[in-house]
Amino acid sequence: MPSSNQPQSLGSVLSELVDRYGYRERFDAARAVEAWPEVVGEAIANVTEQVWMRHGTLHVKVRSSAWRHQLQFQRQQWRERMNQHLGREVVDEVVFR
User: Which superkingdom is the protein from (predicted)?
Assistant: First the structure.
């Protein structure tokens, strides 16, 4: 953190602390999981059972093999939409199970 006595926004202070203590990856993973329903919309969110992030890969458990197959074709688009929503490259890959 800067050593000046100038006021800083709470957001910038928290962001610096997250980076300093090595929590950025966990924080971004939580944001990605939380954003999934909003990014994909209600129809697709309703056919997914579980979403988790590990080492840059967003894992999505899908209720049926037909939906899994359909979503698999669009995995690059989902990755791009997630990263756009998050404002930075957080998701390296999306895997549907």
Answer: Bacteria
